[in-house]
UniProtKB/TrEMBL annotation:
Residues 105-189 form the Aspartyl/asparaginy/proline hydroxylase domain. This is Aspartyl/asparaginyl beta-hydroxylase domain-containing protein. The lineage of its organism: Bacteria, Pseudomonadati, Pseudomonadota, Alphaproteobacteria, Sphingomonadales. Pfam families: Asp_Arg_Hydrox.
Length: 202
């Protein structure tokens, strides 16, 4: 979703429980599904575990995969924190009262190996332009850089970031360890945003 900026901090959260759950994953789990890598060339060098995801990138009634239940105990506090962030102002609460509660249309774990890159790209399509794209680093290193527009950051585990995914963004992992992020796409029904394509409504 477009906003007035390139990247925004949403705070921090204890990531240790999710770190432990991810570290315990068998390597084969990262190769169960390559849908996202086939859909988007920019993500060809990543691995993904789908928790809530649809190949058609639908904006309503997303598919909840078995892995969501597996990870629910350790990601529920993160989901709660993100929901609370988008209900913190009176204006936001009025939108919720009028249009209904927000929901996560996509929840995935994605891994970028040492030396890997996510090539420069800007997200498009109906849903990706109307949702808040949230990144929560689970495992990372100081030599993994996330670029959004003209801003470059080394995202630390436990930080919560929203990126302006309508701008060109890219990732380069020049460190010696894999980078794993929890990526959340949050939709607030009725929310309007001024986009390069005009005013869009979630």
């Amino acid at each position: 979703m477009n906003f007035a900026g390139e990247i925004a901090s949403l705070g921090e959260i204890d990531i240790a429980p999710l770190q432990a759950a991810v570290a315990a994953l068998d390597e084969a789990r990262w190769h169960d599904d390559e849908t996202r890598q086939k859909l988007f060339e920019a993500h060809a060098s990543t691995n993904t575990i789908k928790l809530v995801f649809d190949a058609d990138y639908r904006h309503h009634a997303p598919t909840v995969h078995p892995a969501f239940g597996e990870f629910a105990p350790v990601i529920d506090p993160i989901l709660h924190t993100v929901r609370a962030h988008y209900a913190r102002t009176l204006r936001q609460r009025r939108w919720i009262a009028r249009h209904g509660a927000g929901y996560f249309v996509r929840v995935i774990l994605t891994r970028l190996q040492p030396g890997g890159q996510i090539t420069p790209h800007a997200d498009g399509g109906y849903s990706l332009s109307r949702c808040h794209r949230i990144h929560v680093p689970v495992h990372s290193n100081d030599d993994c850089r996330f670029q959004v527009g003209d801003t470059q950051v080394a995202m630390k585990p436990g930080a919560i970031w929203e990126i302006n995914n309508r701008l060109v963004h890219a990732v380069s992992n020049e460190g010696a360890t894999a980078r794993v992020h929890l990526i959340l796409d949050f939709v607030q029904p009725g929310e309007s945003v001024l986009d390069r394509d005009g005013t869009l409504v979630a």
